[in-house]
Amino acid sequence: MSFLAQMAQVFVYGTLKRGQPNHQVMLDCTNGFAAFQGQGRTEESYPLVIAGEHNIPRLLNIPGKGHRVAGEIYVVDDQMLQFLDEFEGCPDMYQRTPMKIEVLKWEGKCSTPEEMPAANRIVQCFVYSTATYLPEWIHLPYHDNYDSQGKHGLRYNPRENR
What we know:
By secondary structure, this protein is mostly beta strands. Helix content is about 10%, strand content about 30%.
C-alpha cells in the first residue's frame, strides 16, 4: 500500500462485519487494504431488511424510516473500494452512497490525539445501500443490527452454496 494511495471510510452493517459470513474478504490483502476503525450507527434511520431467496441484509435507501443501523467503520484503499464495489454488485444491487455515521467507539490509529473522533462525533462514510429494491421489501421487518445467526431465523445463504 502506497502512502500516496487515497483512503476512504466505509461503514459495513451486514455480512462484512466481524464475526459474519463474508468478513474474510475484508482481511484478504489480495483484495486491497482495510483496517477496522470503530463501531458506529447511521445518523439517520433507515430500513435494514433481510430479503431475497438468500436472506441478504439490505439497507434500503429511505432516510427517516426504520432504525438507526449499527455497524463497523473501516478505512480502505482504492483497491479494496473497487473490490467492494464489485463484491456488492454496485451499482445494480447496491449503490455506494455517502452517509453520516455516528461514532460509538473508536479504535483506529491516528497520528495525533486531535484526529481521533470522539464518541458521538459524526463521520462521513461510504455505505452500500440500495434504491433498487422490490416494493414488498418495505413491508419486511426492520432491524437495527444484523447478525446472520440472529433471532430472526433467516439464515444467510453463502455465495459458495448458491
